[in-house]
Amino acid sequence: MDKSEWIWMNGEFVAWDDAQVHVLSHGLHYGTGVFEGIRCYETEKGPAVFRHREHLERLKTSARLYYLPLEHSTDELREATHELIRRNELHSCYIRPLAFRGYGEMGLFAKDAPVEVTIAVWPWGAYLGDEGKQNGIRAKVSSWRRVSPAGLIPGAKASGQYLNSILAKTESHNAGYDEAILLDEAGHVCEGSGENIFIVRDGQLITPPYTASILDGISRRSIIQIARDLGYTVVEREVARAELYVADEMFLCGTAAELVPVREIDDHDLGGPGEITKVVQAKFEDALHGRAQEYAKWLDVVDVPSKVASES
Ligand SMILES: Cc1ncc(COP(=O)(O)O)c(C=O)c1O
């Protein structure tokens, strides 16, 4: 990966290579951590973090759900992230805040293991590739089912839960596909291994609801808003597996992947990226990059001269 110079660790800025933990850190053994994936984009006003506060609030919610007390307020984490971007002199980057049980106590009820909080930032391109964003990807319904609310908390972004995504992603990769789509135990569609899903049928956008064992994706929420503002009907409802095969269009969305059309699902050819997908994708990209005035409120501008500004 592309190293930066500094990482924020429990209130201090430490050199990238010195941001280390003990091998007996609780989170390494039991997955007791929660994290976020956030992106900062280069805009005319400077580096801008997309829906920063919403991501940090989701981090807090995930932490609360897994009994991890966070000492740092949302404002502190936001300010630390801004300072980290400044110190690393980045204009655009991926941002990874993580809170996890550290070293100090083992066993499952380790309330005395300290909760450590770190933030790292580094340059990271589109997760499913620029080519995928442009021309669409090939996806496969996974044989692994999405974690169930009967055993875990699908709406929380918790480290241990990602073993489920990793099984699905690895299976799809080994079978020659770009991404996995997970169903719930009843066979309804949930989401991709790291993205939410939308289909288009008869001009309407359809996406599984929050109660469908999905992560409450911030890109998903943004796209619902954008699509409605563009005049499309967006329906949140259960989606049957077979509906994927007869969809007019399909796309995935997430912070790392951004909006990615799906051109093939389980060897059913959906054609290239659909018309509605392309319209929504273009507006979403404008929102991310600060080119859509109506969504400027979603951008948390970092107070440094931007490359665009300094070069002009
Ligand atoms: C399992 C899963 N679903 C959905 C998403 C999309 O969420 P967001 O748009 O908030 O990045 C992600 C990415 O974080 C994810 O890991």
List key phrases describing it.
312 residues; alpha+beta; nine-stranded mixed sheet; eight-stranded antiparallel sheet; 9 helices; 17 strands; globular; binds pyridoxal-5'-phosphate
Query: How far apart lie the N and C ends?
Result: 30 Å
How many strands, which pairing sense, and closed or not: the largest β-sheet?
9 strands, mixed
Question: What structural category do the secondary elements indicate?
Answer: alpha+beta
Which molecules other than protein and nucleic acid are bound? pyridoxal-5'-phosphate
Strand content: 25-35%
Helix % is 25-40%
Overall pLDDT score: 96
Q: Tell me the number of helical segments per DSSP (H or I, 4 or more residues long).
A: 9
Globally, the shape reads globular
**Radius of gyration in whole Å, from Cα?**
20 Å
Which runs of at least 5 residues are low in confidence (pLDDT < 50)? none
- How many strands? 17
What are the secondary-structure elements, in order, as H or E?
EEHEEEHHEEHEHEEEEHEHEEEHEH
Show the helix and strand layout.
Elements: E1 6-9, E2 12-15, H1 26-30, E3 33-35, E4 38-43, E5 46-50, H2 52-65, H3 74-87, E6 93-101, E7 115-122, H4 130-135, E8 137-145, H5 162-174, E9 179-183, E10 189-192, E11 196-201, E12 204-207, H6 218-229, E13 234-236, H7 241-245, E14 249-254, E15 258-265, E16 268-269, H8 275-288, E17 299-301, H9 307-311
Parallel strand pairs: 8-9, 8-15, 12-13
Antiparallel strand pairs: 1-2, 1-7, 3-6, 4-5, 4-6, 5-17, 6-7, 9-10, 11-12, 11-14, 14-15, 15-16
